[in-house]
User: What shape does this take?
Amino acid sequence: MTTAVDREVLEKVQEGFRRLGLTLPYFAGLIQKIEVRLDHRVPTVGIFASGRLPVNPDFVRSLSSQDLQFVLAHELYHLTLRTHERSAGTDPLDFNFAHDYIINDMLREELQYERIPAGGLDWAGARFLSAEKILGEMKRNPNLRPSASWDQLLGGEAGDGEGQPQDGPGQGSGPGPRGDVLDSALERQMFPEARPGEQEGRVRAVQEQAARAVSLQALMESMSGRGKGSEAGGAEGTVAALRGWYRPPWELALQRWLESVAPSDRSYARPSRRGADRTDVVLPGRKREGWTLHVVLDTSGSMVEEVPRALGAIADFCEAIGVESVHLIQCDTAVGSDEILAPAEVARWRVTGFGGSDLTPAMLRLAEDPEVAVAIVLTDGEIDYPHEPVPYSVLWVLPEWKNPRDFTPRYGKVIAMTHV
Assistant: This one.
């Protein structure tokens, strides 16, 4: 039963969302998908991928209207930055912390706050870093990792606000799950009354609105990327590529690019690497009807959700235009695998990595092969790559949610996948 006190708290939260929608209008559609639940089982606030937002009434009452707006915006940013999905293959709590640092620094700039409210995590300049970069820094320096528990708001450690985070007092000591990014298993436990399939449907609807919010934000504010990762990863996932998921216009742009740069018949002007051990004769490359498409796959943690769609699209495209084989190099900060595959095999392949984001080793490996004339690099753009132009044409293919204007490499052409 909702009491008068509860209704007062709910109205305060709803008023916070109304103000937030006016302040950051690209969140308007996503706000409509949020379901606020007053719940004393959470000491502060948390967010599920479905948009359910459990809040502790006592905590809400302790916040000023301005600080509550910051907290609500923080939770929405977890949805637009896809913290729930992108933490796959990592320690979810550490990834939660990393995004807390980034989000709070973004909001300090956007909302013009001098301090992070309610003792939230504070790392000045974190908005220019990726989650993978921050994870790497926390791994190298354990003092940077907050020793927070679930009931510490937004990850819960207060920093000094001058660059590097510092340890600080917590906001409680209750048991239970940690972080403000809550998983689906906990949601089913907390809300067993939900109908079968309801949770999954809500997640899809929230993801759609979150993607629109990102697009609107990029359009309205031309926000830049957030840096790159640094640590190699060893997590593996079996990718069942989503065939037919992507269609033109990006495939049309891909086809036009390939037609303009695809290697022609082999000649003596481009010696075959298979004759590299011969000093008495130079062999021409092999002439064939089909040809090999070289693909560098960014398998950093931030790409974990994009890999199946990207590989499915490449497999469909290669079969359609008669590519004989696909040379697939997987890389995070080290080459995870280097394979020659038939296009049909690309649709289901074992992906390694999900660590940092440095494609230099893979791109330089291709540069050592004189037969490589063109290469596609599938990435979210938050990467390191060779500073000097490589000796082959490069097409950078970004996921749909990434604005191509935010990734401006020194060479090559950039396009983004689109979903229809």
